[in-house]
Design a protein that fits this description.
alpha+beta, Alpha-Beta Plaits, 6 helices, signal
């Protein structure tokens, strides 16, 4: 069912792009980003959720999340993490999302293994192949120009 929604979203985006008429295709940029003919590529979508570690020790939790945030920064700086952010309160224990700039779920699992919050099982994850705009890796450059305060 999720694939149907993703396909529908892709069709809507593609139709909108065609409706605009002209294209400003840049082959060198497309190639450098690994884009296919639609300007898209595969990533891995990660849904972060509460793990099985139920510790209540604030110092431990703070330390693990400090390491988690540092790991996010490192993965983003290395071009492996292109989207990260929290999810609002929900009944599924979902905490946030990552979109990894990797082609396989196995590679994404390896990246998660570098995160102290995952190593300690404070966080867990669901991983899915995801087809999205190949331009995602370059949006972070713009974000740095619009954020007033860095995390």
């Amino acid at each position: 069912m999720k694939n149907i929604y993703l396909f529908a979203l892709f069709c809507i985006l593609a139709a909108g792009a065609k409706a605009q008429g002209t294209t400003q295709y840049n082959k060198a940029l497309a190639d450098s980003l690994g884009a296919d003919e639609y300007g898209m590529k595969m990533y891995v979508l990660v849904i972060l959720k509460t793990g099985e570690n139920k510790t209540t020790d604030k110092a431990t939790i703070d330390s693990l999340f400090k390491g988690h945030m540092a790991n996010i920064g490192r993965l983003a700086a290395n071009g492996k993490l292109v989207v990260a952010g929290p999810i609002g309160k929900n009944d599924k224990n979902y905490r946030g999302i990552f979109i990894f700039n990797t082609k396989t779920v196995e590679e994404a699992k390896g990246l998660l293994a570098t995160d102290p919050a995952f190593k300690s099982k404070l966080l867990d994850a669901e991983l899915y192949p995801w087809y999205g705009s190949a331009a995602l890796p370059v949006y972070l450059e713009t974000h740095k120009k619009i954020e007033k305060t860095s995390h």
